Amino acid sequence: MLSIVLLWSAVYLTGMLLCKISGEKETSQLWIHLAGFFFLFFSQGIVFTAAQLLELSFGQACTYLILILTLAALAGLFAGRKELAALPGKLRQLFGEDKKKKLYFALMCWLWLGIFLVLGTGMVMNRQDALLEIMQTTLETDTINKIHPFTGQPMELGVIFSKRLQTLPFWYAALQTWTGCSAQDTVWVWGSFFTITFSLIAFTELASLLFKRDFQKIWLFVCLMELLILSGDYFTGAAGYRLLFYGYSGETIVGFVGVPSVLIILYRFFAPWFHHQDEAWQEGIKSGFWGAAVQLALVLGTSLFLAPLLWGPVLLLITILLSLICLGAICLVKKFRESNCPRG
Amino acid sequence: MQMIWEMMMTAFNGVKESGSYVLFYLLALGLGLIVAWDRYGNSKSPDNWMVEEAKKKIQLWPFLFGLLSLLLIVVNPVSIWILNRLSPIQGNVEKLWSLLLMLFLIAYGVVCFISLLGEQRQKNIVVVGFALLIGLAGSNYGLLSERNGEEVYESQKEAQVALYDARKEMAVRRPEAIVLAPASFLEYAGIYYNGYIRVLYGKDLYTPNLDLGIVDAYPEEFLGIYQMVENPGENLELLSEMAVLYDCSIIMLEDFEGKPDSFGSYVLMEETGDYLIYGYQ
Predict the structure, then answer these.
(1) What is the pLDDT of residue A237?
(2) CB distance A210–B62 less than 8 Å?
(3) B215 and A118 in contact by Cβ < 8 A?
(4) Residue A257's Cα: distance from chain center in Å?
(5) What is the DSSP secondary-structure string of A23-43?
(6) Which of A32, A101, A330, B163 pairs with A60 at a CA distance of 20 to 30 A?
(7) Are B135 and A227 inside 8 Å of each other by CB?
(8) Where in chain A are the domains?
(9) What dihedral angle (degrees, nearest 10) is formed by the CA atoms of A96, A100, A106, A111?
(10) Among B155, B63, B130, which residue's Cα sits nearest to residue B101?
(11) What is the pLDDT at residue A244?
(12) DSSP code for B41
């Protein structure tokens, strides 16, 4: 439990560092988490791919990854010290003094726990196991993609690179190594826990825009979302019991965190236009473009590493180039914005 | 055209089976259309200004997004045809449904509907009513679904025990027993017995984006075998021949009408509620 909390803290702090670097003043919890996970998946993709090419053992790759994450977290702790100090006050504002608001907030937390207990720890038999098989093979052999996870036969490196390379199972295996949880617990309990929590954070963010920060409505909305998940199962593409299966290929994150995130970006961008505020619309373009560019880059980057889009080193190279282009575009926009809209 | 229709229906059935929420989704879209009609199409003077104010606060774009995604992408034959050309593996069409953000729109619709009600008492009743409806319509514990999550769990567990028993029985004659199992049970067959039950192919054979670069390792005939296992009413003799060729001692099939007691070299060993287990004789 402690190691899970530490890992989450590391992701959060890393996200804070990235948001600081991107220069946004008002950064939401969603973007901090997304940025942290973007960094994590970006670095795990690079570390595991390099480890495979250099024929390092799985354990060695895990050590390098945790080292990178620790350094990033320490930098994040330093960069975001003021925001961290203000966090308890912000959290208190979420439920405030209103009794009804408090009631919905408590109900939301209770349902969230229910989802975790019922879907995460209960119906494990209804889950698909591809991720688990690959994890177990990786851990048993202490190698990366050397043994066919479904048949146990040795694989040639050329076969792997001729098709695609997905590193997410290795990331889960690394989680198991660090936390000491069993493979089943890592995949079924913690995997579903993080996925559901992050998707709820994303939808809460979207709801807070739609309901203009009316927290009574927002918490009611989240309660209903949770009830739908709890009683109707958690479906991405609507097919049942596929949280893990889709979680494996990253579609859960892309579908349930990526899509609402893109909607949030689009809403922020177009909201003044929806409300017929021409001046605000023009101002929105100026001020929103920078944030939107960073956020889109984050979502795109996360999607590229989570979704099954990564076809071997060629696409890895394209991903890196794309990220660099995004970064260049962001710097240009920032420069343009600063020269045209001087602060103060 | 027929193929596209079949793919659309398969996707719809997949959605329907995982909960009765499609109806709620359509109701939410209906609410959006009513509000839009009231706001832009009906110039009648308001009867209740509080309700009118609440209607003005409702944002219509999520409903518009849901409606356009549904009509232009999810149930659009052209998009399905394109997807089928790009990646002709069944299951991809189902993924289009994730665009709809179904749960989100249902919850948003309910909150908007509640905001339209005048009295607090009415609001409370509707919240409780909707919570009950969601529970009753869901697939995990709902009364309306044919089989809930617990029943699926029990059924898979029963089939797993039956397969283990059959494997144990076959082990006397064939120590290296390989199992052919349908997709709905494939993963449960292999993993819990730590290599004791081996399967001929993994789900990476037929699942898009799961190949990990290792799909090349399977011979092409395996796709044919997979098709035969998934459609057990047809070509049982051919399935038997192929299974013998690849040294499979157990064939597990989903229950079907007109199931034989034996076919080719295989005889019925175990029968659970959902599955039939045939062993090499």
Answers:
(1) 36
(2) yes
(3) no
(4) 7
(5) T-SS--HHHHHHHHHHHHHHH
(6) A32
(7) yes
(8) 2-340
(9) -140
(10) B63
(11) 41
(12) I
Q: Is a pLDDT exceeding 70 seen at residue A26?
A: no
B85 vs A13, residue with greater confidence: A13
Residues from chain A that touch B150, judged by Cβ atoms under 8 A, are 123
Nearest to A163 among B107, B139, B215 (CB): B215
Within 10 angstroms of residue B269's Cβ, the number of other Cβ atoms is: 20
Determine the 3-state secondary structure of A100 from DSSP.
helix
- Give the CA angle between residues A266, A267, A272 to the nearest 5°: 115
Chain B, nearest residue to A223 by Cα = B107
Nearest to A125 among B106, B108, B157 (CB): B157
Predicted confidence (pLDDT) per residue in A189-245, tens digit? 777 677 777 778 888 888 888 888 788 888 889 899 888 888 775 544 333 334 444
Q: Which among A199, A303, A195, A309 has a CA at the least distance from the CA of A243?
A: A195
CA distance B89 to chain A (A): 15
> Residue B251: what are its φ and ψ, rounded to 5°?
-120, 125
B98 secondary structure, DSSP code: G
Q: Which residue has the tokens 């689009």?
A: A266
- Give B6→chain A minimum CA distance, Å: 16
Note whether B107 contacts A221, CB cutoff 8 Å: yes
CB B225 within 8 A of CB B180: yes
Tell me the range of A53-57, B218-222, B243-247 where mean pLDDT is highest.
B243-247
Annotated domain spans of chain B: 2-137, 149-280
Query: What's the CA gap between A69 and B123, in Å, rounded?
Result: 48
pLDDT (tens digit per residue) in A112-151: 888 777 766 654 444 445 666 677 777 877 877 777 666 6
Contact between B261 and B254 (Cβ < 8 Å): no
Q: What is the C-alpha to C-alpha distance for residues A50 and B275, in angstroms, rounded to an integer? A: 45
- A178 and chain B: CB distance < 8 Å anywhere? no
d(CA A150, CA B130): 44
- CB distance A221–B108 less than 8 Å? yes
